[in-house]
Amino acid sequence: MRLRPYGDRALLLDCDDLAEAQAWFAALHGTTEAVLGARSVLVRGEPAVLRTLVERTTPLAAGPGADDRAVEVPVAYDGPDLDDVARLTGLSTREVVAAHTGTAWTVAFGGFAPGFSYLVGGDPRLEVPRRPSPRTTVPAGSVGLAGGFSGVYPRSSPGGWQLVGRTSLAMWDSRREPPALLTAGTTVRFVVA
């Protein structure tokens, strides 16, 4: 891990991979304001104090650890890319759905839009590339796959993930506390709607 200045009130822990970032986040979350990224952890505060804190901290091997909630996400598996995902993985569409619903996913980190969460830990057979050409509009609630991640689009936006289904759950609601339905460490189970 490399420790880098990030403005005058933060430090960035630049990690080798997601697992290392999750281990640092698990160790630092709760002791200081920390934001988990794909290969980084941003900590905010007085840089000299943060540097000392990081130097005295041992990363935890327990993953994100910020949230022990479990959320069930009902999905209608009728996405426009379901057949493509089946072809790319060598599975039938029924097997794609079974693989997506058959394992628990974990929110690794948020990003791209408020309420969008990058989910990891699913069936490794579902690792597929992003679409060769992104769509200009992906409807809110679309459930997608890209690389080793799954995610749910919180609002209508452009996107390049392989869309396998849709849910009616609101991923982001500014009247809810917290506004994001899925936060780092949350366990997510997809179920057939």
Structure characterization notes:
- The chain is α+β, with helices and mostly antiparallel strands.
- It folds into 2 domains: 2-55, Gyrase A, domain 2, CATH 3.30.1360; 70-192, Cyclophilin-like (Cyclophilin, Beta Barrel), CATH 2.40.100.
- The protein has 4 helices and 13 strands.
- It has helices at 18-28, 47-55, 82-89, 93-102, and strands spanning 2-5, 10-14, 33-36, 40-44, 70-75, 105-110, 117-120, 135-138, 142-146, 149-152, 157-159, 162-166, 187-192.
- Strands 1-2-4-3 form a 4-stranded antiparallel sheet.
- Strand 9 and strand 10 form a beta hairpin.
- It is elongated and about 55 Å long.
- The model has no long low-confidence stretch (mean pLDDT 92).
- One of its GO terms (molecular function) is hydrolase activity.
- Keywords: Hydrolase.
CATH evolutionary superfamily of the largest domain: Cyclophilin-like
Q: Quick one: overall form? A: elongated
User: What level of helicity do the residues show?
Assistant: 10-25%
- Number of H- or I-type helical stretches: 4
**DSSP E strands, number:** 13
Structural class: alpha+beta
Can you list the strand order of the major beta sheet? 1-2-4-3
